[in-house]
Design goal:
The chain is built from 6 helices and 6 strands. The protein is of the alpha/beta class. It has a single domain, classed as 3-Layer(aba) Sandwich (Rossmann fold). It has a 6-stranded parallel beta sheet with strand order 3-2-4-1-5-6, sandwiched between helices. The two termini are 13 Å apart.
Length: 196
Amino acid sequence: MPKIILITHQKGGVGKSTLTFNLAQNIAKSSKVAVLDFDSQGSLSQLKEIITSFDIIPFVEDINTILNLEYDFVFIDTPPYLSNHLPKLINIADLILVPTKAGILDLLAIKSTLKLIELEQKTNATLVVFNMIKPNTTLTLDILIGLEEYKVPIAKTHISDLVAFTRSVVLQGVANDRNAQRQLDQLSKEILLLLL
């Protein structure tokens, strides 16, 4: 049975699909990985023909089939809204990643997602990941302080707003950028330590 990693946040533009792609690409170097694209935009499904390091599975209606997939890890990319599938996905997830930018609107929008996770009693299996972070800004610290009220674990590794991450889908990874690869390796390590 695979380890299920759900990537969700009700707000669009926080980099869910790009983070999903990069984590899957990174972990696929040593494991059998699939990405399940639950986003109706199908951003990742469009890459199905050109990505060879991991499998991309378009939306499946029967969520229970995910549990029977023969992979080490299955990443689930979700749409930028709270779908009626989300409670079921939260329940089957071994780990829930909630990527967020360091912005006031992102902090306000994360509340609904974290509330749903709390209702499903999966707060301890959740990790907020600061994604697309601008360098040298105190706003990140302000948002960190704002997140304290939710009592949700926050990843030590922050993913910067680097061009390498934006280009990673076309270049099939970030290996050519040492800073981006270091951040991705550190976040992957945090995730794997929580799962294993």
